[in-house]
Amino acid sequence: MIVAREKTRSHGFFDETFHPKENSGRKRTFKNEKLALLCFVLVLFAMSLFIVFYFAQLYTLGHHIDVLNQELAVLRVDSQGLEEEIQQLVSLTNIEYLAIQTLDMVRPEVNDYMLLTLPYMGYADAEITPVSGAP
Fold first, then answer.
1. pLDDT of the chain along its 135 residues, tens only?
2. Terminal-to-terminal C-alpha distance of the chain
3. Cα gap 98→89, rounded to integer Å
4. Contact, 128 vs 113, CB < 8 A?
5. What angle do CA 40, 41, 47 make, to 5 degrees?
């Protein structure tokens, strides 16, 4: 018959003197993970606020550009109207009408003109020669 004897020393990985370490390192790591997660969430929140602010600025700027384009269209229409009015006022028919009606000028007849010779290269006096039909 075989009798089991009592073991006097341990032959395994753990012996009786083994005491597991306290989990203070794990708690510290867990706190660091919480802090890292909190920082990550705060960074994401700050980035989302920045993106919202950026798109709000883009929307506001786009609206401002639309308003300015509408004002520009109105100014172009006004400018075109003023250009047409200038062309009408500068036209020869309008000038002639204003000269005859407003300033009481008279339209010259075919033979109502004088031929003037101007001094040229040392000639001191000018000759005025009436053309036939002039008084």
1. 566 666 665 555 555 555 556 555 556 667 788 899 999 999 999 999 999 999 999 999 999 999 999 999 999 999 999 999 999 888 988 888 888 888 888 877 777 777 777 766 555 555 555 555 544
2. 173
3. 10
4. no
5. 90
Residue type, 85: E
Instruction: Extract the tokens encoding 40.
Output: 């990550």
From 43, 62, 41, select the one nearest 51 (Cα to Cα): 43
* Residue 94 vs residues 100, 104, 124: alpha-carbon distances, Å: 10, 14, 41
Alpha helices in the chain (DSSP H): 24-90, 92-101
Rounded to the nearest 5 percent, the helix, strand and coil shares of the chain are 55, 5, 35
Specify the pTM.
0.44
Residue 43: per-residue pLDDT: 97
* Spatial CB neighbours of 94, under 8 Å, sequence gap ≥ 6: 88
Of residues 92, 135, 94, the one with CA closest to residue 113: 135
CA 61 to chain centre: 8
